[in-house]
Design a protein that fits this description.
Layout (H helix, E strand, L loop, with lengths): L2 H10 L1 H51 L94 E3 L5 E3 L14 H13 L4 H12 L5 H14 L1 H12 L4 E11 L2 E9 L4 E6 L4 H7 L8 E4 L12 E4 L1 H14 L3 H20 L8 H26 E2 L4 E2 L3 H11 L1 H4 L1 H4 L8 H17 L5 H19 L4 H7 L12
Parallel strand pairs: 3-6, 6-7
Antiparallel strand pairs: 1-2, 3-4, 4-5, 8-9
């Protein structure tokens, strides 16, 4: 209001002034309400903006997450992601190193067939050389496959009638029980192709038709696998018992498998000599209890720190440092926390020291152990402070959850398990043994897509465990698979 308007109201009397004050007071209250509403809206928008920033950061981290900075498998990286090795460059040139024994193609002393190239006359004058003795041979050998054909062996059992009237029948060799049947070599080849090279039944049909001009139905191929599965039951039980009673280092891992379009889990228990697989519909302790190895195991269980393993206190535990290194990479790259880089370097330094000392000791000396543990504790302390500053929420007065917070707590709580490889050289730095043993499951699924039935998955688990075990014992896989179709399968646990 202008000064003149105010004077005019004043001149009209006290009632006009009162009305003016009331109107102005009402307007002020309305404006205050508007200010309050706008303030609340600004606060809401600020909070929403903060949440959106966190969401954007989370999504960016997901995009940047790969097998090098998380527990994701390399197969998930895609074509644009290049997996980086955690190993330091050796400085060696690619290929065979000096002193390395090569595998050059060489002539054999006793060839299967000899074909003589004859010369019957002189190339210069034409004189006959038929009666001239050979002075020497220039030898060239061709290494090739024999003619691919099915060999059919017919067994004829004599039937003779004695003068006493009794009809006598000759005995067939052991295992010859049907008018027509497949031999152990075909059966072993089928299982080898399916369970070791992961060739599906459809392509096996094509293989036998193209190579041997012989048709074997998918039903027969499946039946051969089933027969092998049942034959190896006792061997599998022996492998399981050995691993259960092992007092040394045993590796554990699990991976999801799709069985008839349903997610289930394949669990692996292994060391450098034995491999045991078990399919279960659960991943955690329920599966581990049902499998029955960990509840009785008293050695050192090496794993990736899946929380279900912590239930089993009758054994020692050792955490896979390769997993930890990948997590540290993720925190360094995605959360920009410097402590993670220092912890990664410390673990690699300890591993390097262990590798240098391995041949001369069973553990690092006490002074080095103390020094490394002090460095470890110091990095954890610095990391806690750094993470607190970066993830402290001033509104709630609490520290936000983050991957760095979770890893710091795990590294602090399980210090002994992380550094166990430093105090006992029989304990490996990582869980690569189990990861190698379980990797073939993923290859199998890439080729076949899924297991069509639980039986098919169980066939794979037992037969693949057997193949892995005999290979670790440097036994010929085909010889072992052939034996599986006899009454005495080769058992690497006793031979």
């Amino acid at each position: 209001m202008s000064e003149n308007e105010i004077l005019k109201v004043y001149a009209e009397g006290i009632s006009s002034v009162i009305n003016l004050v009331k109107n102005l007071s009402a307007k002020i209250d309305s404006l205050n309400n508007n200010v309050g509403n706008l303030t609340e809206e600004i606060d809401n928008l600020t909070e929403e903006n903060s949440k959106l920033k966190e969401r954007v950061q989370s999504l960016e981290n997901q995009i940047k997450t790969n097998s090098n900075n998380s527990s994701k498998p390399p197969s998930s990286d895609g074509l644009k992601k290049k997996t980086r090795s955690l190993r330091k460059p050796s400085g060696k040139k690619p290929g065979g190193q000096p002193g390395h024994k090569g595998f050059t193609l060489e002539q054999v002393e006793n060839p299967d067939e000899i074909i003589e190239c004859i010369i019957d006359k002189c190339n210069k004058c034409g004189t006959s050389l038929k009666d001239v003795p050979v002075e020497k041979y220039i030898v060239r050998q061709v290494i090739d496959l024999p003619e691919s054909r099915i060999k059919v062996t017919e067994h004829r059992a004599e039937v003779k009638k004695c003068t006493c009237g009794h009809i006598n029948k000759a005995e067939f060799p052991e295992g010859i029980t049907q008018p027509v049947q497949y031999g152990t070599k075909i059966k072993a080849t089928s299982v080898y192709l399916n369970q070791h090279q992961f060739v599906p039944y459809d392509r096996q049909e094509e293989f036998f038709e193209d190579i041997f001009n012989h048709h074997i139905s998918k039903g027969t191929l499946a039946s051969i696998n089933e027969s092998c599965y049942h034959s190896l039951e006792s061997v599998e039980n022996n492998i399981k018992e050995i691993l259960k009673n092992d007092e040394g280092a045993v590796h554990y891992d699990e991976t999801g498998v799709h069985i008839n379009k349903k997610l289930e889990w394949l669990h692996v228990t292994s060391n450098d000599l034995y491999t045991y697989y078990q399919v279960h519909n659960k991943r955690g302790s329920k599966a581990m209890d049902d499998i029955g190895i960990l509840p009785e195991f008293k050695g050192t269980a090496i794993h990736d720190s899946w929380r279900s393993y912590n239930k089993y206190t009758n054994c020692n535990h050792s955490l896979c440092c390769a997993h930890i290194l990948r997590e540290l990479n993720g925190i360094t790259e995605l959360e920009k926390q410097s402590w993670a880089k220092n912890m990664k370097q410390l673990l690699l330094d300890i591993k390097s020291e262990v590798d240098k000392t391995f041949d001369n000791a069973n553990a690092l000396n006490l002074s080095k152990v103390i020094r490394y543990e002090e460095q470890y504790d110091s990095i954890i302390k610095v990391g806690q402070e750094e993470d607190f500053k970066l993830n402290f929420d001033s509104k709630t007065g609490k520290r936000k959850n983050s991957k760095s917070k979770g890893l710091l707590e795990r590294l602090s709580l399980h210090k002994d398990e992380v550094l166990r490889f430093m105090n006992d050289f029989d304990i490996p730095f990582d869980n690569n043994q189990a990861e190698r043993d379980i990797r073939m499951t993923k290859v199998k699924q890439k080729v076949s897509g899924t297991f069509r039935s639980l039986c098919g998955a169980e066939f794979f688990a037992r037969i693949r465990g057997y193949i892995s075990t005999v290979r670790k014992h440097s036994k010929n896989i085909m010889d072992c698979l052939e034996s599986a179709f006899t009454d005495n399968p080769i058992d690497p646990t006793v031979t």
